Structures are given as structure tokens and as C-alpha cells.
Please model this.
Amino acid sequence: MGKRETNNRVWQSLAILIALSIFPFPSSPVSPFPSARAERTDAALVSTSTREGRLAVFDDAWSTINNRYYDPEFHRLAHGQDWNAQRTIFRTLAADANSSQELYTVLRRMIASLNDPHTRVYPPEEKSDWWRPRFVSIGIAVREIGGLPTVVQVERGSAPQREGVRAGDVIESVEGTPALSLINQRLENSTTSASVSTRLRAFAKLLEGPAGTLVAVGWKRKDGSQRSAQFRRYWQQRNLGLRVRGEKDDFAVLEIDGFTRPIAADFARSLAEKISGAHGVIIDLRGNGGGDAEAMSDIASAFLGDGFNLGQFTDRNGSSFTIITRSRSLFMAERIVQTKLPLVVLTSERTSSAAEIFIDALRAARRATIIGTETCGCVLAIRTRHTLPDGGVLDISELDYETATGARLEGNGVKPDETVVIGRSDLYAGRDRAMDLAVSKLTSLEVLVH
Model:
């Protein structure tokens, strides 16, 4: 067996475990790893209550990134600094931290200098499986709408719903401080560039804090009236899945939260059983933060056929692996069902990683119309999660990605064919203009065909 063939087989086994995602946040929380790829689970855990323990965690995190990061020159670092300088700046702060929470705040500040939302660190109490992400919430999700922190989702039965918070309301203050001032301050103090993902994170994490604590929130309602209340933060857990929301004007609507093997299997069954009578397909990826690259490839194969080049992953040593669509799944016995039904894909700034690869491939093949807003531009790959000495976890971007034509989506994203920006009036009215336009597009195609 030749060296090239051996390397390719190794890459094939690793590629199944590649997970691409964006940071967790309340409206669409995701986490970037399959938990089966954990390291050093049998090691004795150190305590971060001591200076030595905190330094052990810090040094392990810094050196692991130094040895495994996809870009050994660290070109993404802000302000012209190098990675050695980051160690000098933050090591003393880590040693002097007063708690595990403060230590991980220091680690996150250091990692933020990479300008890379995929590389993240979680303390032991925050780690979770990718397909069942955990996050702290008060029962609402916040996004930037018209430059303002706006409620886009309210959990049914939650305290905010009982207090009258509705999708479309604007968060005015947090603990008595103007909300927009808090966000602007975080953006100004950030070591990262003013990217789509940076702004998205700043708005989405406006109400973050330790589980069990209270937060005072002031908000403005549709009629302009002001309300305020205290809400308790709590842990939530969500299962990523696929929902076939029935047929809308004879068009099947698939909402895909992420790309996992179970979701790919559900998709295959849905394609064979529930979509056969549809005249077109709408795939909603507006909350899709990525996932397993091979699961994404399975779903893409249904629309692109066998042998379509989905792009290439490359590690710091220059070794690369190409993802290609196929006729048979790597982890299901059935052949991949093919469809030539007209296709529309819905996107948002939360659409990231493997979802961006999926969309860009459909566009390159002229297979779908893309409607919504520009995607995140967050397309790097995590191959293996790293367990820190105290039981925390570190996710590292070990692989860069380029499309089949050599373009990088990281930092650039995918622009829609037609832009539809959500407004507060849409939220209050429960109106989905992107979905309405998708139906209109498919209806026009159906008329032309007949």
C-alpha cells in the first residue's frame, strides 16, 4: 500500500469526526465536538483552587493550541501580536485568578485574540455533548434587529412570557445599565475584529451569567411602554434535530438544526417517505451552526448526486482531505436517495460552518436559490476535543477549509441570492418574509414548468 493511499485512509477515518459549528447561544445553541473524541479521560484531575493547578490548566491550554492550531504562524491574532506574547500577557492573570470562573474568563480572553469562534474553552460544569447542547438562559433569545438588542424568541411557559415579554420587544437595560451601552462596551473591549460572529455573540450573550443568579431586565414593548422585571438564569438543554413542518402550498419544508448522523438518517427517511409528493423543497438553515462534515455530505449528496467536490480541509502540516458526495452513506446501509426537486435554502447570520459549505456547494452547482441574510463566515474544523487537567474541555481549529475552487469561506461567508432582513414588525406579526419569498419562488418555477 502506497503512502498516499495510507494517508487518505487515515484522513477518511478522521473526517467522519470533523465537526463544524459556531459558539453556543440561546436561540440556536450548538457545541463543536462529538463527545466520543475526548482525550485523557483517565487522568487525575487537578484543582484550580491552587495557583499551581490554575497554571497547569493555563499552560496546557496555551501549549495545546500552540501545537495543534491549523495556522502555525497565528496570522489571525489581533494587533500584530504573536502567540508567545499572549502567554506572557495572560499567564500571570490566570495564576492570580480568584476562582475557576475567573480562570476561564482569562482563558477565553486569550483565545478571543485568535479571532476564531471555533476555538473555545469550557469549564468542567459547562461541557456537554454537541447533539444535546447545554446553555444558560432566562427563557428568551436576543439578536440584533435594526441595530437594537431585540427579543426574537420567548420560551413558552417561561417567566419572561408570564411577565409579558414578546418577540419584537427591545431590551433596554440590564441591571440598570443601558443594554446598547453594554454591547458597545464589549465590542470596544474585544480583542477580535468586528466580524459578523463577534457582533452576533455580543448581542446573543447580553443576558449571560451564572446559572441560579437573578438579572434585572428592562424592555420596551410594541406600544412603546417600558417594563422591567427580575429573571433567574437557569440551565437549558436542547436536542438538535430535523423537523418536516408539513407541506406549504405543496412544498416540503425541512428545518435542520445541525448535521449529525441521526439527522442525516432522519433526512434520508423523510426524503423517501414524506417528500415524494412535494413539488419543491425549502431547507431552513437559519439556526444551523454546522456539525459532522460526513453527515452534511450525505444530505448534500441527495441534491448534488455522486462525485461532487465539496471542498478541501488542510491541517497545519499541509496534509489535506477532500469531501466528495457519494451514492452510498458511510454510516447507513441504504443508498442515498436522489432528488431533482426545485430547492430553496434559507440562511441567516447564525448559519455557519458545515451549513455554509453545504450552501456554497449548492450554489456552485446552480442547484438552489439562497434567500435570507449573509452567513457567519465561520468555516474551520475541529478534529478532536482536548480535555484539560481540571476536566474542562478545549476545542481547537485544527483544519482550514477551501472550496473546490480554492476560495475561503472563513471570514467571508455566503451571500444570499435575495436578501430578506427581519424587522420588529415581522416578529410582532409572526410574519416570515423569507419563507413567503421561498414559496413564491418555487410557485413561479412550478408555473414555468407547467
